[in-house]
Amino acid sequence: MTFTALASSSHGNAYIVEDSRTSLLVECGVSYRKLQSLFRLVGRKITDMTACLVSHEHKDHAGCYENILAAGIPVWSSDGTAEALECEAMEVFDLPMGANVGKAERFGTLEVLPFRTLHDARRPVGFLIRSAEDGDKLVFATDTANLRYRFPGVTLLAVEANYSDDILSMCTRLPDKVVRRIRNSHMEIGTLCGWLSTLDLSGCRQIYLLHLSDSTSHEEQFLRQVTSVAGGIPVTACPRELKKEEVCSIK
Ligand SMILES: [Zn+2]
After folding, report:
1. With b meaning 16 or more CB within 10 Å and e meaning fewer, what string describes 102-133?
2. What's the 65 CA to ligand 1 centre distance in angstroms?
3. How far, in Å, is the centroid of ligand 1 from the Cα of 38?
4. Can you give the C-alpha Rg of the chain in angstroms?
5. Total count of domains within the chain
6. Separation of CA 1 and ligand 1 centre (Å)
7. What confidence tier does 215 reach under pLDDT thresholds 50, 70, 90?
C-alpha cells in the first residue's frame, strides 16, 4: 500500500491511499483547481480514484467535496459530517450512535473501517484501511485530541502531530478561546508519543505525521520525539503542500 500526502495543514488536506488495484482519495480540503494541480504533480487524475473519504466537515478536510461528487466519485463520511454539510448525496458509513467503530466498507481491494475521533466537529471519524492485495493495514487519524484504539497489526500509521504544549503556552498572541480549542480538538506531540508507546509497532514500517500547525509545531523536534518512541521505524513529516521535488510516499 502507498500513502501519498498532497497537502497536510490547516490550509488544506488531501492524501492518496492505494494498493496496486484500488486508489482512494482521503480528504478533499483544498480547492478543486488546487487538487487537480496536485494530482498532476504526482502524474495522476482525480477520476482514477474509486472513492473519496472525508473525516469531518471542516473546510480544510471537505472543501471541494461538491466538485468530487460532480466528477462522479462517491464521497464517504459519517452521518454527522453529511448532516453538517447538508449533503444528501454523500455516502454514509454505518456507525451507530454510541459505537466507537463502524461497519467496514469495501472499495475494490481496500476495506475501510471508520472509528470515532475527538474533535470539535459533528461525529468525526478516522479510518483503518486494509488491503486484500498486499495485506497492509494503514491507520489514518487527524484532527483528534487523542486516540483510544490499539490497531493490532498496523503496518502504516498516518496520524496528526499538530502542536507542542510548550510552544502553545509561550504563544501570547493567541486568544484563550483559540488555545482552549486547540487543546480540546488537536493532537499534542506528547499525547501522540504517549499513545504510540502503548502500541505494538512490530509490524509497522512507516509513520507519517500529519497536519503540523504553522505556529505551534516544530518539525525537527517532533521528528526527534516520535523517532525516540518509534523503535527504529522511519518517521516522516508530511509537507504542508506537495512541491515538485518532494513526494511523501512509500511503497
Ligand atoms: Zn477540523
Report:
1. beebebbbbbbbbbbbbbebbbbbbbbbbbee
2. 15
3. 21
4. 17
5. 1
6. 26
7. confident
Distances (CA, A) of 85 to 29, 77, 121, 138, 188: 13, 10, 11, 27, 27
Q: How many angstroms separate the alpha carbon of residue 183 from the centre of ligand 1?
A: 13
Taking CA atoms, 245 is separated from 9, 190, 242, in Å, by: 19, 31, 8
Residue 243 falls inside a structural domain: no
Does residue 244 lie within any of the structural domains?
Answer: no
Whether 115 is in a domain gets the answer yes
Whole-number Å distance, alpha carbon 77 to ligand 1 midpoint, is 14
In a domain? residue 246: no
- Mean pLDDT on 170-181: 89
**128 Cα to the center of ligand 1, angstroms:** 19
pTM recorded for the entire structure? 0.95
Q: What is the CATH number of the domain that holds 192?
A: 3.60.15.10
Tens digit of pLDDT for each residue in 62-86?
999 999 999 999 999 999 999 999 9
CA 100 to ligand 1 center in whole angstroms: 19
Q: Which domain holds residue 23?
A: 2-237
What is the Å distance from ligand 1's center to 58 Cα?
Answer: 5
pLDDT in tens, 91-123: 999 999 989 999 999 999 999 999 999 999 999
| Under 8 Å between Cβ of 206 and 213 | no
Q: Is 249 a residue whose pLDDT tops 70? A: no
Q: Ligand 1 centre and the CA of 142: distance in Å?
A: 8
